[in-house]
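Team,

Forwarding the record for the chain on the shared tracking sheet. I've put the sequence and predicted structure together so nobody has to dig through attachments.
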Amino acid sequence: MVTILYAGILGLIYIALSVYTIAGRFKYNQNIGDGGHESMAKRVRVHGNFIEYVPLALILMMLAEFEGASEDMLHGLGGALVFARLIHPIGLMRKKGPSLCRSGGMIITFGVIITASIICIRSYFNYGI
């Protein structure tokens, strides 16, 4: 199984983002919300954005894998998703407003979700489930 590799890698990235957010909570003495601190707001959004998109992408990848998607396709999707989820927070944290890393991370993430979704839809119609 290929998807399990990327689920593990992304799980570690999630923990790193969680620790980064928790560190901000200690730094700003903020248990809930961002307390009006721009840096804390960015930490919360980076963490939130990850958890909003990654689970769906992994579920779609897993379903595509179960339906026989090639290992090359799955490694392409998984590698792209890991790359996207690494560059997105860099772009969000380093620059106010739009940035190439932030936008690129979201575009690549959308590409992974769209591609995996198409594989799943095609699989449904190919097998007449």
